Amino acid sequence: MAGTAARPDWRNGKLGTRVRVALWLVSEIGEGRKFTKSQLRNAMPGVEQIDRRMRDLRPAGWSILTYRDLNSLAPGELLLDKIGLPIWEKEHRAAGLRSVTATVRRRVLERDGHRCVRCGILAGEQYPDGTGSTARLTVGHVNPHKYGAGATEADLVTECARCNETAKHLTGLKLDEQRVWDELTELPGRDKQIVLNWLVAGRREPSRAEKAVSHVWQLPAVQRESIEAKLARLLSS
Ligand SMILES: [Zn+2]
Asked: Which keywords are on file for this protein (predicted)?
């Protein structure tokens, strides 16, 4: 059968627990067959949170029934009702996972220049509404309403907590269309074009200068000061 040869061994301790549990279920149990929690724990002794990792398979399309779902099962007994997505394969690794791995998060922030793609604010920057509140960046789904979306880089964008909440609940601020339109028409022509491009793209493309600044900010303070001093010398020479 295609794909079977490439399936990794569940005994490989380098694989994540969720992947190992999935592989163990496929290789040692099989669809439609019963197993017990002790069998699973004994297969991977010393592995933490093994029950939880098994439950984490459900959003990836795995159906694992307990005695609560099926009264022919005894407590502690489970039924592998349906094998879901092959999460041991790279493209399915993140299936059903809500959390974003640290590496993916870092890559998304880097790609987006450490700024909110919706409103363009940088981490720690004050919102321009005079409330004095500062931005905190999060990594959110491109489509916040897509349930059980994968958490690969392509599915994620950098958003500030405020834009992320607005996208989720569609609450917005207490503004009406006329007020927003009046504000727009008062902008200089060049700014109107910037706003239009931004709206069409659905995101702000940071300028080269802004990207460079966001990179400087990621350096330790000593290096930041060194760069600032070098730049000042360069410009004054
Ligand atoms: Zn924002």
From this structure: Endonuclease, Hydrolase, Nuclease
Q: Over range 62-84, report the average pLDDT.
A: 90
Tell me which DSSP letter residue 71 carries: T
Give tens-digit pLDDT for 114-166: 888 888 888 888 887 777 788 889 887 776 544 444 567 887 889 888 877 66
The Å distance, Cα 9 to ligand 1 centre, comes to 44
Q: Which residues of 179-190 are buried (b: 16+ CB within 10 A; e: fewer)?
A: eeeeeeeeeeee
Domain that holds residue 166: 98-173
Q: Does residue 38 lie in a domain region?
A: yes
Tell me which of 109-118, 189-198, 207-216 is least confident: 207-216
**How many whole angstroms from 206 Cα to the centroid of ligand 1?**
13
CA of 129 to the centre of ligand 1 (A): 12
Distance 121 CA to ligand 1 centre (A): 6
Residues by chain with Cβ below 5 Å of ion ligand 1: 116, 118-119, 160, 163
pLDDT (tens digit per residue) in 175-197: 678 888 998 999 999 899 988 98
Same structural domain for residues 86 and 107?
A: no
Q: Do 84 and 23 belong together in one domain?
A: yes
> 48 and 16 in contact (C-beta within 8 Å)?
no
Assigned domain for 29 exists: yes
Residues 78 and 103 in one domain: no
Find the 123 Cα to ligand 1 centroid distance in Å.
10
One domain for residues 66 and 117: no
Is 67 in the same domain as 119? no
CA distance 137 to 214: 13
Number of domains in the chain: 2
Per the CB < 8 A criterion, the answer to whether 80 and 30 are in contact is: yes
| Cα(219) to centroid(ligand 1), Å | 23
* Ligand 1 center–CA 164 separation, angstroms: 7
